[in-house]
Amino acid sequence: MEDFLQGTLTLFGNPTSVMIFVGGLLGGMLFGAVPGISMLTLAAIILPFTGNLTASDAIMLYSVIYCTGVFGGAITAILFNIPGAPENAPTAFDGYPMTRKGQAGKAVGAAVLCSAFGGTCSALLMMAATATIADWAISALGPPEIFALVFFGLAVASSVGASTLWKGWLSVLLGLMVATVGMDPVGGLRRYDFGFTYLLAGIHFIPTILGFFAVSEVFVQLEKRVRGTYEAPKVNLDFPSFAEFWKLKLAVVRSVVIGFFAGILPGIGAVLAAFMGYNEAVRWSKTPERFGTGELEGVVSSETANNAATGAAMIPLLALGLPGGALTAMMIGVFQIHGIEAGPLVFINSKDLVWVVFSAMFFANISIFFLGWLQTKTVVHLLRVPFHFLAPAILLFGSVGAYAVRGLALDVLVMFGAGILAFFLRRSGYSVAGIVLGLILGKIGEQNFAQAMQMVHYDPVTFMSRPIAALLLVGGALTIAVNVVKAFRGTRVSVDDETAEA
Amino acid sequence: MARPTRSQILEAAFWIGFAALAYAFSHTFDREIEIYRFGASGWPRVVILLIAFAAVCQIFQSLRESRKNAGRAVEQIAETVPERKLEDSLRITAVLGLPVLYAALLDISGFYFTTPIFIAAYLWLNGERRLPWLIGVPVFIYTVLLTVFTKLLYIGLPIGYVRPFYDFSNWLLVLIK
């Protein structure tokens, strides 16, 4: 507690630090909200200038950008079906249908509250147990566990959003197949590139996600306009009531735990946290068929989980010097610019710096609540603009986002191609969410499977002797078995058009 | 068992065909990796096998549902199927196709020249016929895009490689910055 107070005093006692803190808050939110131009873009732009800041200000700035950047993309995901970043994609599954039903205020309000809550819990856990958790996580969680986690996630994802179980599986498998394009993760052999250099690096997920969500949604709504069945979403600024939140307390706690542990895993972080949080909400729900049609619990689960991953990602970074993702890798760079070595010694040699970062992350998450609330009261009014005016704007923001990733016009074509494909797949009852999940988790899954197999010398018994991996694999297999039995008995509830659209 | 509909046959054919093609192409990288027993083709082939399996299961489920629904009155089905006009279908095709054309032109004529024309054309295609809106909305969106991405964020956007468009883009960039 004393350390925390000291860190807070250092943070807010210096006007320059306060300005950097506020700049990080606003910058993270803005860059997080614009598709294609993520918080990573901002972090990369400012990296060369961090040498002019003190070490604690520079690291603090990055940690604040991380917290607010993860939240920023939720607003556009909910209002326009445009996830600002992959970790906001599951938020769109239910957030956007809520907007269509006239519950945008409620969805954004839930995202604001849950992001702030998940992030704050994560920051508190990070302060309390960084060293202990880092030791445990690094020894207990390896490639077999990460592969098992991916398998478990995919098993649950197949039951979300499609009109039949098999269409759900075909969606996930299509995503996995697309993820195999490019170089294989072990030997670097070229796969399905057909001689095109562009395909060598694989199909980038930012243009694909923009196409699957934003572009296909524009096409679906414009088709409705052409056929005369379009209904404008009603603008509603009501926040969720306390009673509604209280009903979802278990989902929130579950997502905090999932997000926190997913955040610790190197290379996984907030993306898997959000998907796992959402999937678990579906799995535990008594009415799983309602997910994808505008279920508040879907928004709550994914937004709590992705922000809960932010504090956790600092644990391996600060305690062991292991970056969990691109932003934390840049933070290692900031440490190096200032001649500090991230790792266990940082707690001894730069204790003040560590506690300034912890305090900044805590207050950044608290600030999400207030800034998010203001954002909700203003941004939701965009829904009053006629859709045919918004449509070209959405397509163009998406185009710039897709182009900005690698500076390739071909990525814009890929985005529109993915949009057209998703437009037809949605009409046939396939799940866009499943495809995106397969695409994002495919590479992580394959890479960790290969590493796991090498680790256990291709022996399935050794693989299953790792308790966490075994538990997750059995859990995934049971989920698949139960769903298959339901499908053959015909007890799966047929979803309506709205569900299929998600 | 009920006869499959044309769309069910097409859907099944698509997935089986996709799996077959993907399998055939997997031979191009079916090489051993010294440190990894399953090679580069192991993972994709398992996914392909699962796609084929899920497609077959989907066909069976569709047929079972068709059999269940076979008793529905033809009139009832006819009522639920909306009438599709040729003009509407052509407009939807244009709604899908115009953005692809825009993306294809980005490298040639550049973002700065093509974008305002695209916005106006897309508005017109979506039923907007009022001249002030056809001019005002593109100007507004274009200004916002240029301000945010070019002026504030310095994002390099395509300037086109064909002469008059290239010159126009450079002239505009100098003007903005």
Describe the overall structure:
The complex is a heterodimer of chains A (502) and B (177). With 502 residues, chain A is mainly alpha-helical. Chain A has one domain (2-501). Chain A is built from 22 helices and two strands. Chain A has a two-stranded antiparallel sheet with strand order 1-2. In chain A, strand 1 (182-183) and strand 2 (190-191) form a beta hairpin. In chain A, helix 6 crosses helix 11 (249-264), helix 9 (205-227) runs antiparallel to helix 17 (387-406) and helix 12 runs antiparallel to helix 13. Mean pLDDT of chain A is 82; it is low at 493-502. Chain B is built from seven helices and no strands. Chain B has helices at residues 6-26, 42-69, 74-80, 86-109, 111-125, 131-152, 163-176. Chain B starts with 5 loop residues before the first helix and ends with a helix. Chain B has two domains: 6-80; 86-176, no CATH class. By secondary structure, chain B is an all-alpha fold. The interface between A and B is large, with 58 and 63 residues.
Tell me the major beta sheet of chain B.
none
The number of strands of chain A is: 2
What's the Cα radius of gyration of chain B? 26 Å
Please report which band the strand proportion of chain B falls in: under 5%, 5-15%, 15-25%, 25-35%, 35-45% or over 45%: under 5%
Structural class of chain A: mainly alpha
What is the H-and-E element order of chain B?
A: HHHHHHH
* Total of helices of chain B: 7
- Biggest interface, and residues per chain? A-B, 58 and 63 residues
> Judging from the principal axes of the Cα atoms, what is the shape of chain B?
flat
The averaged pLDDT of chain B comes out at 87
Shape of chain A: globular
Overall number of structural domains of chain A: 1
Distance between the termini of chain B: 70 Å
The number of E-state strands of chain B comes to: 0
Instruction: Work out the radius of gyration of chain A.
Output: 22 Å
